[in-house]
Amino acid sequence: MVVCGLACWRCRWLLPLLLGLAIIMGIIALAGRGWLESESEPYVHQASLWDSCTRSQGDLNWSCESLMDYGWGRAAAATYLVGFVILVICFALAVIAFSIEILRFNFVRGIGGLLFVVAAFQIIGLVIYPVKFTEEIPLTGDNMFSWAYGFGWASTVVAIGCAFFFCCLPNWEDEVLGNIKPTYYYSSPERAPYLN
């Protein structure tokens, strides 16, 4: 049976694994066409981070307009993309940090700080997009921000969680490295005089 507590050195790969999961969700958000979709039939609107597509009822072909023609579209895409690139860099740094036998805990805290920067950039992009999209793009029918937009938020939430763990990990340096001697507690009252 494998027990994975805080002092388990094998468990050091959990944080880079979570960062890898955040990267996968970020890729889905960047490539997905489900940032905004029609909520019910007829499905006449579909948008991604990069473009907005519409079609008339009964038509099978989508007519797409690039969101990069708008300043807010470029800003939303740029901030989310910058956050994603920094997230990939943090993942590479985390793999390097946890591969070294002597873990550099100040280095780990720096990764946590960078992850807060990732979260800030991604949140800016995820807030600019719906606010300006609903203001400047004409919408018909009932629309909802959909699955790809949700993956963008999920990636950001995982990055924030990992940032807290990376920043707090140096506080438990001795536990992680196994440098603490076990403490034994004796419960027998007869043995208490012999412990002095």
Automatic annotation (TrEMBL):
Alphabetical keyword list: Apoptosis, Cell adhesion, Cell junction, Cell membrane, Cytoplasm, Membrane, Transmembrane, Transmembrane helix
Membrane topology according to the record: Multi-pass membrane protein
Organism: Spheniscus mendiculus (Galapagos penguin)
Compartments, record wording: Cell junction, Desmosome; Cell membrane; Cytoplasm
Gene that specifies this protein: PERP_0
The protein's name: p53 apoptosis effector related to PMP-22
Keyword Kinase: no
One Pfam family hit: PMP22_Claudin
Family that this chain belongs to: Belongs to the TMEM47 family.
Keyword Translocase belongs to the record: no
GO CC terms in record: cytoplasm; desmosome; plasma membrane
